[in-house]
Amino acid sequence: MDIIPTYNYFILAALLLGALYSLYLGLRKYLRRVEQGRPWFGEKLTLDGARARFNAATFIKRGLMTSRLKQRPVAGSFHGIMFIGALLLIFGHAVFMLDFVGIDVYQGWFGYLFLQLGREVGGILLFTGVAFFLIRRLNPPDRLTAGGKTRSGFERGEAFLLVIVIAGFITEGFRLAFEVSPGNGEFLGSAIGAVLSRTFGEEGSMLGMQIMWWVHGLMGCAFIAMIAHSPFSHMLLGPTNSAFAHKLPGINLPPINFDFDEDDDGEEEMSFGAAKLADLTQKNLLDASACLWCGRCHEVCPAAQTGKDLSPKRVMAVCAEFMEEDKFDDDSLIDVLGQEAMFACTTCAACVEVCPVSNNPAEVIVEFRRHFVMDRSEMPETMAAANRNLESRGHPFVGTASNPEDWRKGLDVPFFQPGITEYLLWIGCSVAYEERAQEIARAMVKILEAAGVSYGIFEEAGCTGDPAKMMGNEMQFVEIAETNIEEFKDKQIQKVITMCAHCYNSFDRYYPELGADWQTIPHSVFIEDLQAQGKLVMAAKSDEKITFHDPCYLARHNNIVDAPRNVIASVGELIEMPRSKKESFCCGAGGGNYWGGQGGTARVSDVRMQEAFDTGADKIATSCSFCNLMLTSSSSKHTEERKVFDVAELVAEKITIIDS
Questions:
Q1: How far is CA 335 from CA 275, 331, 332, 340, 342, in A?
Q2: Which residue among 84, 103, 448, 644 has its CA within the 20 to 30 Å range from the CA of 151?
């Protein structure tokens, strides 16, 4: 018996097309908004522009497989349950359409697995996942309300989705009240149908089936129609944003064109960074559109977690609110976000690493910093002093008592000779001007000498310009970088060893944009290579417990986590902190906060040092001169004994010199 006349399916199909059109209009709204940013895909979002930026790996891993959601086992599991349930239901309903062209898909093993059991299990999984998140939103974790921003609409949407699933099972129950399921894979529907059959009888069940078929179908169409006009837009925008994630991890700051064009009045246009939405890139605006307001970035942000004014979640949420109100040219945005918050960022990229939809709040923050610094000449005084010192003296260390050659007193350190020396040992500003960091260079010289490496240094130590860049002074960074690149080319530099994670990141990521073409190697990686080649003769490893602090600019920005651990394991017993590798907690120095970082309830480095002490380790190791300085300062609050060491220092202590 044909309970639902065929023409009803055609009517429902027409309504579904209307719902899909509503979905299209909503997505087009986001497209038009994103296009108002500075070109990243192109002036307009075209297929060619999208293809050039497409990142298949992140689309599959993060967008489809939701890999970052699985970092939180409970939430990740229930997201997975929902996703699998939705796929089973969508596939089952889509395949059923084949019945209209004469293919009886409801019979046999295929019908049992996909249209009966598959849809049944899918409905249960979807209901379970949605119910979990709805219940949790009634008593939300702190991160969902962090930054003073809570995204409304999820609760109503989730409740509506639950009603749709329930309506689907009731519809199925009414059908099975008078129709025998061929394979009985619809076990829940059969149980519901038995109850409905006894309650309504055959005729009542048929009428109920007709009513609920329309109720369920209309609600399904309504949900599809509302997706792009509600927070559920993240189901499509999230995977889309992951599809266009940067191919490099961490922060990827676009270069600024300092070749000024003149406008019609003959005056130079000299606005840098971002004060309003239109100053951000199209990718930045796509980030804000895709943002879930889930607060995971807030949970891992060292500034937010030490009581400072910054919340990366709030930054993205405020940008999204301005977009929703079409305030693309409203330059009050930068003041709503606030100078204090923007300069509290340590550029550690923890927010970037944890975001389930591949947002990059840190890039947005630095864009606002650029405007504060280069347009308004505004920044915290301690950072401003470091910037002035960098401009006048070539390094940012104000009031230092050290001279750049102090670290090599008593050592016979060779200078780099073009065409003869193989490696440049880049000293950098922190090693040259901070007494504690100077010991890292001395240890590295001992290692290079013991291994017979052809190396040399520059007679005068320099800075890569990283502090200027990350504090927002891109113009100063470019000037420093271009000077360094010219010197490197003059001296035919091909291979560089760095002892600072920030130096490595600048040389490897940003200098090539300005014409650099040498190989840069972090010293921990270089030491590991020397050990692997058998070039270092070392005493037997001790039973000392050593915990390792991952520099953000190596682990998160550059995926370097194994090399320093292998080096440490060669000298002692490595034990991990709770937050380690790419989930490490920052030392607090990045983004110029070595010269800032004030305010809040605690210093970032104090929090990290406490984590290190809590492991019970005998020593705390790191592989960045700035991390060493920050953690050494915090360690002194606990003990007068030296606890913090660079990996080079640990190895240098173990080197056995064999007389030839």
A1: 8, 8, 5, 10, 10
A2: 84
pTM confidence score: 0.93
- Please tell me the total number of residues recorded for the chain in this structure: 660
Rg for the chain (alpha carbons), in Å? 30
C-beta separation of 341 from 596 below 8 A: no
* CB neighbourhood size of 544 (10 A): 12
**What residues contact residue 424 under an 8 Å CB cut-off, 6+ apart?**
416, 455, 456, 457, 458, 488, 491, 493, 495, 496, 497
Domain count, the chain: 4
**Structural domain span for residue 357:** 277-374
Q: Write the pLDDT tens digit of every residue in 351-399.
A: 999 999 999 999 999 999 999 999 999 999 999 999 999 999 999 998 8
Q: Does residue 268 belong to any structural domain of this protein?
A: no
Q: How far is CA 430 from CA 455, 460, 500, 585, 606, in A?
A: 20, 13, 8, 21, 20
3-state secondary structure string, 277-330? HHHCEHHHHHHHHHCCCCCHHHHHCCCHHHCCCCCHHHHHHHHHHHHHCCCCCC
Instruction: Write out the H or E segment, with its range, that includes residue 513.
Output: none
In this structure, are 284 and 327 located in the same domain? yes
CATH number of the domain that 82 lies in? 1.20.950
- Classify residue 508 as exposed, middle or buried by CB count within 10 Å of its CB (0-12, 13-18, 19+): buried
